[in-house]
Design a protein that fits this description.
12 helices, eight-stranded mixed β-sheet, alpha/beta, binds phenylalanine, about 15% strand
């Protein structure tokens, strides 16, 4: 998963060298710049990590959840061989502050947070990437006039309307095997969300539509653990991926997509919990945008097929 193109090229070059030279270059492997720090944002401090350098436009990554943290995006650090790749944990999760103050977990504050992170890291020009809630944040950022210096946009597992995504999830729940969706609803109506049965049916949905890898990689476990602890997830999203009762449940930006005039790539997985119609609505709304569906993948495509995913992103931002 960590085999970057540079590593592959370096390995190929090394094998052609004499043994002595090979030993020397082995002792000095090419290492990407890798640094971490904190930035002041409205409401607290957030943790960031910058991997890579290079002349190309920096790539700023917005994770989903909200509250799932940067960890599951880490396969994308392979893109740091050509440019800086910047991860950060949004307020309310991971290595960042997570004040128990519900008023902080509102979309406009997260928009301001993006600007604060850009300012702290001197990110005048960026490629902006958002997965899931991160795609909502990226869209909100662009349509509210914050997009100065954004050169390209990548929207992954993306939606421009939570009501549309909720309707899609209802269809996915209905289509789960053995009436699992119906049973989930029954257990929910009976207040049985803490039961083993409910939890195991949540897992059926997640295994089908959130991340299809089994066993799950540690980055996935970190995302789930982050979300479970995060006030941002509870306040904005709701108790789980398909029970969206939080404060963004009515968020709707489909009518505003025409304001986005950037080269835009939209990606989704064949089995994505955010259904294809959500990605298509964005594709129709942003002139000239591209839509890529990743076969065999669900929502966390960058974890499921990291090499294929990075190749698509690399080509788009070349
Ligand atoms: N909870 C999803 C995420 O991982 C976001 C989402 C919200 C998806 C609403 C669909 C509907 O970020």
């Amino acid at each position: 998963m960590d085999l970057t193109r540079r590593t592959i090229l370096a390995t190929m070059a090394t094998s052609a060298l004499a043994p002595a030279a090979r030993a020397k270059s082995k002792a000095q492997p090419t290492k990407l710049v890798d640094e971490t720090g904190h930035a002041e944002v409205p409401g607290g401090k957030v943790w960031w990590r910058r991997v890579g350098s290079g002349p190309k436009t920096p790539l700023l990554l917005l994770h989903g959840g909200p509250g799932m943290g940067h960890n599951y995006l880490l396969p994308m650090k392979a893109l740091g061989d050509e440019r800086p790749v910047i991860f950060y944990d949004q307020l309310g999760c991971g290595l960042s502050d997570a004040p128990e103050n519900d008023a902080l977990y509102q979309i406009p504050r997260f928009v301001e947070e993006v600007d604060a992170v850009r300012k702290a890291l001197g990110l005048d020009r960026i490629v902006l990437f958002g997965n899931s809630w991160g795609s909502m944040l990226a869209i909100e950022y662009m349509v509210t006039g914050h997009g100065k210096g954004v050169e390209k946009l990548i929207l992954s597992g993306a939606l421009a309307s939570v009501p549309q995504a909720i309707a899609g999830m209802e269809r996915l729940l209905d289509a789960l095997p053995n009436g699992a969706g119906k049973r989930l609803k029954e257990l929910e109506a009976a207040g049985q969300q803490a039961s083993r049965e409910y939890q195991s049916l949540v897992q059926v949905f997640y295994d089908t539509h959130l991340c299809r890898l089994n066993p799950k990689p540690p980055e996935y476990d970190a995302a789930i653990a982050n979300g479970a602890k995060s006030p941002a997830y509870r306040v904005m999203n709701g108790p789980n991926e398909f029970t969206i009762k939080g404060n963004f449940k009515n968020w709707e930006r489909r009518p505003d997509l025409g304001k986005i005039k950037l080269p835009t790539l939209i990606t989704t997985g064949e089995f994505d919990e955010v259904t294809l119609d959500c990605a298509e609505a964005i594709h129709n709304g942003i002139a000239g945008s591209q839509l890529k569906v990743m076969p065999g993948c669900s929502h966390l495509t960058m974890l499921e097929k990291p090499d294929e995913y990075n190749a698509i992103i690399r080509k788009f931002i070349a």
